[in-house]
Design brief:
Elements: H1 10-16, H2 23-34, H3 38-51, H4 55-79, H5 86-93, H6 96-128, H7 132-140, H8 155-170, H9 175-200, H10 210-219, H11 238-249, H12 257-260, H13 269-298, H14 309-316, H15 320-354, H16 373-389, H17 392-418, H18 425-436, H19 445-449, H20 458-483, H21 485-490, H22 495-516, H23 533-547, H24 551-575
């Protein structure tokens, strides 16, 4: 398990050799690894038919949810101070099955992340050459399976993924310099977009009405496809649209875990890691806020075209030459993101195979290049197929779903581990004998709120486990009710308010029981504050955002998990390493 290497953090190897990392170094690392292709992929998708100009609020909600998840990651990095991921953290703290579920979800996130970016790369390039590729493929090989596959198979994006796979299977060291150059170009282009948007944008585009929509159609003679109008104004698709957009915008903040993977290199552990996380996410939010604001000020939201909105925005305001500059920046950022996702994907696949949870052939290392060739090729082929046949929207939503679930699992593990006793084998045996004897601790209503021990016991650990299971179930019910709130209000049912209030009372009471239980006294350089409230809030926000995604996304995720469980129970459970991962 300990052999896992966070391959995207090669930047860390450079700066850590010079000495301890300052808070500024950690912030820089978090920004570099987070600000990437998200804004290029998401801006047109979210603003056009989910949120409109209120996409800026979507990014804020997604940023808040990311901070909660990142703080939970920070405590895991304190418990397992190695370059690792949620997979290793879960393996070390809560066991094999949780680790497999987490790792399998991370693989899903990396696959769909690379596939969505490759699809966006294809759309951006196709836009530069007059949409010739999409028109040819749509006319020649249409896929008449709505709500399942894309309108046409994108063989150009598929070929792009196979090309990157081939490059990664040969050499990898040169890509560090390439990604650095691409990142600099990306930052300069985004800065140009923000400045241009505030210079050429119109505030009226944030308060569009149905009359503006009709006038636009009249001016274009109804030859250009327009997106849905919604209610118009700054929030054209209502509060529900903001939540749906926030669930998708979560995609843009993946990458902050690079901060916690190098926590042991920080000069001030207690201060640098949490501050680095919060500041880096805040800076990323400012970038996304600036770009999405500029975009929606330049172009009416219903005229945004998914896939290549930023270059098209400059064409809309009459800056045609700038369109090509922005397109080049977009292609650079998208290329970097593909490389990063493919690096992470192949090593996640390799590490799970090396632990026996996936097929052993995926763990074979080439003796000349020290690269897991089989894992690289297999993961590349799977990603290429998904790139070709799935829509960009489905890929983005599926990645967001897998990431939100992974972050929820991390929060759950933090909550469980902090309330469990940390005993060695002899103490465990003695504790078990005492618990079965006459002096065994008895569970009473008084003990629920006033435990007799200042340190966790097996009984208090079980109380937390059971209580949080109940809280998780109640949170799920609460999210289901809140998601259906607008529909239920139409029936003017007074029981709705009673149900919500009752759920909140039960959740608060059971959370109070967890809060009263003794926590582990183990000293760590960072612990999640306000336990158990912060992890529970993180789980609630993640689950609520997951509820905003479509039924098709849930169905695709269900199929992915069925495949994963078939692999685990058919192969992994029999071949996994039965060793203590610590």
């Amino acid at each position: 398990v300990g052999c896992y290497t966070h391959f995207s953090s090669q930047y860390v190897a450079k700066i850590s050799t010079a000495g301890r990392l300052s808070t500024l170094d950690i912030v820089a690392l978090g920004v570099v690894n987070t600000v990437g292709a998200g804004v290029y992929v998401l801006a047109g998708e979210v603003a056009s038919d989910k949120a409109g100009p209120s996409i800026v609020i979507c990014f804020l909600v997604a940023a808040l949810s990311s901070v909660l998840a990142a703080l939970c990651y920070a405590e895991f990095s304190a418990r397992v101070p190695h370059s690792a991921s949620a997979y290793l953290y879960n393996y070390v703290t809560v066991g094999e099955l949780w680790a497999f579920i987490t790792g399998w979800n991370l693989i899903l996130s990396y696959v769909t992340g690379a596939a969505s970016v490759a699809r966006a790369w294809s759309l951006a390039f196709d836009n530069l050459i007059g949409n010739q590729i999409s028109q040819t493929l749509h006319e020649s090989i249409p896929l008449n399976i709505p709500h399942v596959f894309a309108e046409y198979p994108d063989f150009f994006a598929m070929g792009l993924m196979l090309l990157f796979t081939g490059l990664l299977a040969v050499r990898a060291s040169e890509f560090v310099l390439v990604t650095t150059v691409f990142t600099v170009v990306n930052v300069l282009v985004l800065g140009f977009v923000i400045i241009s948007g505030f210079l050429k944008g119109k505030l009226h585009n944030w308060w569009l009405t149905e009359e503006d929509y009709i006038m636009t159609m009249f001016r274009l003679n109804d030859t250009s496809p327009l997106g849905p109008l919604g209610y118009g104004g700054f929030v054209p698709f209502g509060f529900q649209g903001i939540l749906r957009g926030a669930a998708t915008c979560f995609y843009a903040f993946t990458g902050f875990d690079s901060v916690v993977t190098i926590a042991e290199e920080a000069q001030n552990l207690q201060r640098s890691v949490p501050m680095g996380i919060v500041i880096s996410v805040f800076i990323c939010f400012l970038v996304y806020f600036g770009v999405s604001s500029a975009l929606t000020l330049m172009v009416p939201y219903y005229q945004l075209q998914p896939g290549s909105p930023l270059p098209e925005a400059f064409l809309h305001i009459g800056w045609a030459p700038a369109r090509y500059v922005v397109a080049i920046g977009a292609l650079c950022a998208l290329s970097t993101s593909i490389l990063d996702s493919m690096f992470l994907l192949r090593w996640m696949t390799f590490v799970m195979a090396d632990d026996g949870l996936l097929f052993g052939v995926l763990a074979r290392i080439d003796s000349k290049t020290s690269i897991p060739i089989v894992a690289t090729v297999v993961s590349g082929i799977i990603t290429a197929l998904m790139t070709s046949f799935f829509r960009l929207t489905d890929l983005v939503d599926l990645m967001s779903f897998g990431t939100l679930l992974t972050y929820s699992l991390v929060a759950v593990c933090i909550l469980i581990v902090r309330y469990q006793p940390e005993l060695n084998d002899e103490e465990n045996e003695a504790e078990a004998q005492e618990e079965n004897g006459p002096a065994a601790e008895k569970l009473t209503l008084w003990r629920l709120f006033c435990p007799g021990s200042s340190t966790p016991t097996p009984l208090s650990g079980r109380v937390v486990y059971v209580c949080f299971s109940l809280v998780a179930l109640l949170l799920l019910l609460l999210c289901l009710v809140l998601v259906q709130w607008p529909v239920l209000l139409l029936f003017e049912n007074p029981l709705l308010i009673i149900v919500v209030v009752l759920l909140l009372i039960l959740i608060t009471g059971i959370t109070g029981v967890i809060w009263r239980q003794p926590q582990s006294p183990t000293l760590l350089y960072f612990k999640v504050p306000a336990l158990p409230f912060l992890p529970i809030m993180s789980v609630f926000m993640n689950v609520y955002l997951m509820m905003q995604l479509t039924l098709g996304t849930w169905a695709l995720f269900g199929v992915w998990m069925l495949i994963g469980f078939a692999i685990y129970f058919g192969y992994g459970i029999h071949h996994a390493c039965r060793i203590n991962p610590t």
